[in-house]
């Protein structure tokens, strides 16, 4: 079981977009270069975020991406579901209804205990992701990044985004 | 993100093996037919369970599979890890260390907040799976199965396994 690799990129891009001053948009090329990613790969991830109403894209000379909603209103679960999909990791194929013990489908009224237990565990995972917002990720990034990396990053982004005015 | 489909088969097979009287082993062909599965697919799953010390295989005329440990000592997490692997679903590639903000690797002393949050959520999922044992799954199966399916299943398994003595 492996999550779409774009989830990591999306979370980091969301941190950058949440830290961009109001009125500025960040081009995809800047987000890609900042994280050392291929623009063509990142484009798909950003499109998924746009479809989920997490980012909005604008076109034109000052175009680029910005968050569609305030950072405290976007959770890590929103990002995971947007990029990795909404489907459960555990897919029940109802093998219990196969073979020599099978009875009429209508008699199996509820999902079986195995599937329910698997899905309850996934709910615990989703609830944990839903408790962290993009605003929390910004705070963690500020707390965890080496001071020199923060300074270099802020200067570079400021130049790239600021010079577009 | 999709879990290995063998996890469902493995959980159902574990329920059957936990319900088999002491001293009897259940052939792979019986487990496969009972769940309507291709024996060649199920073989791989059972081998994974054997490698993880969840089942043991015996050969010979009365050979087959049985649980390697008592059912209350095997958790659903054990089964998931055996069949789907031990790796985290979220793989951090440290994109934060790429691009124009990069500083010396040694300055990034800990995993970043995004990866830590993702892994904490996976821990919540694993803890939920670890709280359910194969003995619990047996109880759920007895509770949730249609009475006719239980009767047909027990009769068929009793004939298949019992006639081997």
What does this structure look like?
The structure is a homodimer of 165-residue chains. Chain A is mainly alpha-helical and 165 residues long. The first copy, chain A, contains 7 helices and 2 strands; from the N terminus they run αααββαααα. The first copy, chain A, has helices at residues 6-18, 28-35, 39-51, 76-84, 113-130, 134-144, 147-162, and strands at 55-58, 64-67. The first copy, chain A, has a two-stranded antiparallel sheet. The first copy, chain A, starts with 5 loop residues before the first helix and ends with a helix. Chains A and B meet through α1, α2, α5, α6 and α7 of A and α1, α2, α5, α6 and α7 of B.
Set out the fold topology.
The structure is a homodimer of 165-residue chains.
Chain A: H1 6-18, H2 28-35, H3 39-51, E1 55-58, E2 64-67, H4 76-84, H5 113-130, H6 134-144, H7 147-162
Antiparallel strand pairs in A: 1-2
Helix pairs in contact in A: 1-3, 1-4, 1-6, 2-3, 4-5
């Amino acid at each position: 079981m492996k999550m779409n690799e774009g989830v990591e990129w999306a979370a980091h891009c969301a941190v950058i977009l949440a830290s961009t001053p109001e009125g500025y948009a960040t081009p995809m090329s800047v987000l890609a270069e900042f994280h050392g990613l291929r623009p063509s790969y990142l484009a798909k991830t950003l499109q998924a975020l746009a479809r989920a109403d997490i980012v909005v894209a604008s076109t034109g000379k000052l175009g680029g991406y910005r968050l569609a909603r305030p950072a405290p209103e976007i959770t890590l679960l929103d990002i995971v579901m947007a990029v990795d999909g909404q489907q459960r990791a555990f897919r029940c194929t109802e093998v219990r209804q196969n073979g020599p013990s099978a009875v009429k489908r209508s008699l199996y009224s509820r999902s079986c205990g195995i599937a329910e237990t698997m899905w309850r565990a996934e709910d615990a995972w989703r609830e944990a992701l839903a408790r962290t917002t993009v605003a929390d990720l910004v705070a963690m990034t500020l707390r965890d990044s080496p001071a020199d990396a923060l300074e270099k990053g802020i200067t570079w982004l400021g130049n790239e985004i600021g010079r577009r005015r």
